[in-house]
Design brief:
This protein is α/β, with parallel strands linked by helices and 725 residues long. It is 46% helix and 11% strand. It has 31 helices and 17 strands. The strands form 4 sheets. The protein has a 7-stranded parallel beta sheet with strand order 13-14-12-15-16-11-17. A 6-stranded parallel beta sheet has the order 3-2-6-7-1-8, with helices on both faces. Strands 4-5 form a two-stranded parallel ribbon. α11 packs parallel to α13. It starts with a helix and ends in a 12-residue tail after the last helix.
Length: 725
Amino acid sequence: MTAATHSTLFPQVPETADAVLDGLDPEQREVALALTGPVCVLAGAGTGKTRAITHRIAYGVRSGRLQPASVLAVTFTHRAAGEMRGRLRQLGAGGVQARTFHSAALRQLQFFWPKAVGGDLPRLLERKIQLVADAAARCRIRLDRNELRDVTGEIEWAKVTQTVPADYPAVVAKSHRDAPRDPAEISQIYAMYEQLKRDRSVIDFEDVLLLTVGILQDRHDIADQIRSQYQHFVVDEYQDVSPLQQRLLDLWLGDRDNLCVVGDASQTIYSFTGATPDHLLNFRTRHPGATVVKLVRDYRSTPQVVHLANGLLSQARGRAAEHRLELVSQRDPGPDPVYTEYADEPTEAEGTARRIRDLIAAGVPAGEIAVLYRINAQSEVYEQALADAGVPYQLRGAERFFERQEVREAGVALRGAARAGGNDSLLDDAEDLPAQVRAVLSTKGWTPQPPAGSGAVRDRWESLAALVRLAEDFARARSGATLSDLVAELDERAAAQHAPTVQGVTLASLHSAKGLEWDAVFLVGLTEGMMPITYAKTDEQIEEERRLLYVGVTRARLHLTLSWALSRSPGGRASRRPSRFLKGLRPGSGSLGTVASGASGSFERGAAAGRRKPRGPVLCRVCGTTLTEAGAMKLMRCEDCPSDMDEALYERLRDWRADQARELGQPAYCVFTDKTLMAIAERVPGSAGELSSISGVGARKLDRFGADVLAICAGEDRGAGLDED
């Protein structure tokens, strides 16, 4: 995670304005002291850009040169805005507004709508995909689920680039954009979508920006009122602004130039949403007198990781590449990157899971490890492999922490206990703050050991466990803190979306990993057709794929593993090739001038690394079809082929697994996954050899659980088993 969310320590607020500057490097300090006029900060990955701009704002506020209410800091995600608010609060500048473009615009729109338009603001549409489906149906155009998602994305792109329905086909042709359907059809659906919104009196998120821009353009009195409040603007991730967001920013600014922008053209990875680095690259042209500061000291990654990142960008082409930053690691040397080639995707996933298990055994926390892939569809095989290896994991992209139902309920319970004080019998035996929190949350589902199960039950427990850990850290940092103090801290964190850490290996797409970091990162599936993705055709699209891989590389602090598989399924033709972006960077991959001379790292073959013999194709034992999906290969049959599972045996295995998980203090899937139990119940193995042939039953699990499982399959009554062992 990022530095702010990785640590749950509670630093003391600096005593003076000058103390805010303590610990900044010379370039960060230059940013913090540049409080007036246009400022452009070109900040490479891991160089402390958020630290620099939050200290800039805090120094301005604490020195009296900036009024907190006059500063508006904008970024692109609620998580990033929450992190910024959390850091500002820790620096003593808690009154500063730090928001996303959309949330800042929505507040203004809600406030000024009655004055500018009259009546109530139309209802905000949370998800537009159903309305797009209705629009397509009205147009008598059939869209499958994937096409519906893609067309929805096209409508969003059209709106942020300020393209109206009638102009969409021409704009697509001019920009060489690869439309998911006939542009004329999308134009028709887009027009109908807008009509349905008007008919139903709803607006979408893009309308929030469009309507705010419209009001500020038409009502100079309202524009002047907003400009009188906000005198100073800070824009993070400026390489990701869309034309519409830039238009809104221009209207906020008016004829003033108290603007600080921060970005890195080499991390532009959202062009499909309308983002463009042109505004960052043209900043000095628009503001000739701007102060420009470059941050290149990388505090995140080891020299080995930084060397690979620099080598990756040295091959880049195009305008963004001309402005790339050469990072300089500030950390001690670490291990070389590891490049591993596997025979097939399941073997790649299993090898990755084994390496992760070894890292955890060596002391790397599970929450400091990530597996990153190009598309979300790649996650399933890694979920299965990690579960089989007994490694807890979490999928990135779930709802925000403080919006989870169990977290809201926990907050209510803690607030009630804090008000009751000594009159709450729950707290009678609780000697300190963490004990009080554990006592209260035990009524909401928290237990000292994780539940025997996965899914919603496990997720709920993880959320509550994160609150318990937060209370423990809070008590260590603030001697004598009370339950009321903790509740106040939680309220402030909720307002800032500054969430505690939930433990488990992170599985995430490269896009969703932007802005995060881990001690160990596994970049998987790095083959031609996936990286770069097969639909990246133009030079510009290929370069964005390279930047996406660069973002992945720079997420790693210490350990970095890059891997690919030569075929999709076991026994398949080894026709895949490793990504072109690795040529000249991985050992033995050929020369690319000066890049090749610096190639470093170790190269391994997956069979040796994973100690696996090559497998033949896996065929469905019912219909004979070649299987490619992880779950189907585990069952040795197509998902929709009839099952001959012994239901009673399956239930006995589940009961046994629950006992094992409870004894081990692990989630049930770390013993065996549901799919593995189904496979056992279908095949009813009678020997260790037959049991070990089932995917998910490796040597470690065979040694640990084999006797019990075989006994249950033979009809014997086997209990928890740990005492017997």
